[in-house]
Amino acid sequence: MRKIVVLGSGFAGYHAARTLEDALLSRSRVKLTLISDQSSFVFSPLLYNVASDELDPGHITTPLDEAFDASTEVLVARVTRIDLERRVLETDRGEVDFDYLILAPGTARDTHAFEGAERALTPDSVRRAVEIRDRLAGLFEFGDQSPWHFAVVGASTDGVEWCAELASAIEDVRARNPELNRPVEISLIEARERVLADHSEEMSAIATRYLQHLGVKLHTGRRVVAMSDIGLTLDDGSAIEAAHVFHLAGRRGHDWVAQAGLPVNELGRLKVEATLQVEGHRRIYAVGDAADIPGTSPRNAQVAMQAGRQAAQNLLADLVGRAHRPFVYEDRGDFVTLGRANAALDLLGRAFEGRAAWLAYRLYFTALMPQAFQKALLLMDWIALRASRPDWDQRPAALESDALKPGASGRSEG
């Protein structure tokens, strides 16, 4: 019996396993196992909405035992080691052997990125998002009269989206409680010269303008070197006061992946060929954030889903002796949400923002939810949220008009 193991239940692993299951249901001599350190598929782009108390965590999770057929073994376990010689995964629930392996374990925050980084908050799981939600709820409801100082480290998609969501949540609290008069300061620190440096300059310009509209202080071209009880120290010696620090930069591959002897890049991500096979290992594939996929710049749900399906299809081709196909990413638009009132969309070489982009973002993410009832729940949540929005989210006319100017809505040549 051939044993196929998919490691990880994020976008890449989930869709790889679903593709394999659909193709293998009629085959009795192939065993499919999905190993994950969590019992549910989590719609991770919406974790920030959970952390800000915009969405219920149950509305963005799908229990794995409900998502797969009984013929697929779902093992909730934490992998500690890959033994390539014996073709075995060592987990905290015993050993699992494999003939074919699709690696999609994701990545982890680099806790050595700066001194004290391990103490920073990170909304990268349901548990941590709920912890942040509860912490913010306690601050907003029972906080003392001291200023609210927040700092977000990293201005890639994660950092920008969380920064805007946090600012939106605070404005909502102020709108509901006019008597609150605490000073609020949100700082966003990025080592590169602009926010959203992996996106087009137009997307970066839109995000910069809107974050400034929300009152966020931007510190680009600066690195954090240390975190203390009172805030952050930057590489130029300046200090940022912050009682609440969020670390959303510096993701790396898991140490146990590199320790297995598999080829990795400087960030610990697996080196793969165009067919998504790990270099030098014909029966091992790598997808998602854990893989250094050639020719792919964004690291988002679209890439992960497409790569997961392609890896599964190539594995199936190998089972029957067919040729593999190289992975080619189909760009279906680049979304960045900017809080509860705005979003930016890069589509067909043009960048847009405003209500149309916000609606497209919401509808697109709703369509990606794996089950119909979740789509309905998510739509109901967002419709209710939009219907109850206070007046503060109406963008100033100057900001609306700026979005239509050349260089703000269209990609410049060259």
Q: What is the helical fraction, as a range of percent? A: 25-40%
Q: By CATH's scheme, which homologous superfamily of the largest domain applies?
A: FAD/NAD(P)-binding domain
Structure annotation, total helices:
11
With strands numbered from the N-terminus, the spatial order across the biggest sheet is 5-2-1-9-20
**Content of β-strand:** 15-25%
Radius of gyration: 22 Å
> Low-confidence segments, ≥5 residues, pLDDT <50?
391-414
The structure class reads alpha/beta
End-to-end separation: 54 Å
CATH architecture annotation name of the largest domain: 3-Layer(bba) Sandwich
Quantity of strands, as a count: 24
- Mean pLDDT over the full residue set: 87
Assign the CATH topology of the largest domain.
Answer: FAD/NAD(P)-binding domain
Largest sheet: number of strands, sense, barrel closure: 5 strands, parallel
Q: Per the principal axes of the C-alpha atoms, what is the gross shape?
A: globular
* Name of the CATH class of the largest domain: Alpha Beta
Number of domains: 2
Keywords: FAD, Flavoprotein, Oxidoreductase
Family: Belongs to the NADH dehydrogenase family.
GO molecular function: NAD(P)H dehydrogenase (quinone) activity
Domain FAD/NAD(P)-binding: 3-308
Give a verbal description of the structure.
The chain is of the alpha/beta class. The chain has two domains: 2-107 and 253-320, FAD/NAD(P)-binding domain, CATH 3.50.50; 118-247, 3-Layer(bba) Sandwich (FAD/NAD(P)-binding domain). It is 32% helix and 24% strand. The protein contains eleven helices and 24 strands. It has helices at 11-24, 47-51, 64-67, 126-142, 157-176, 201-213, 255-259, 301-320, 355-368, 372-387, 397-402, and strands at 2-7, 30-36, 40-42, 61-63, 73-76, 79-83, 88-91, 94-97, 100-103, 108-109, 148-153, 184-190, 216-220, 224-228, 231-234, 239-241, 244-247, 251-252, 270-271, 284-286, 291-292, 334-337, 343-347, 350-353. α1 links the parallel β1 and β2 (30-36). The longest helix has 20 residues, at 157-176. The protein is globular and about 70 Å long. Mean pLDDT is 87; it is low at 391-414.
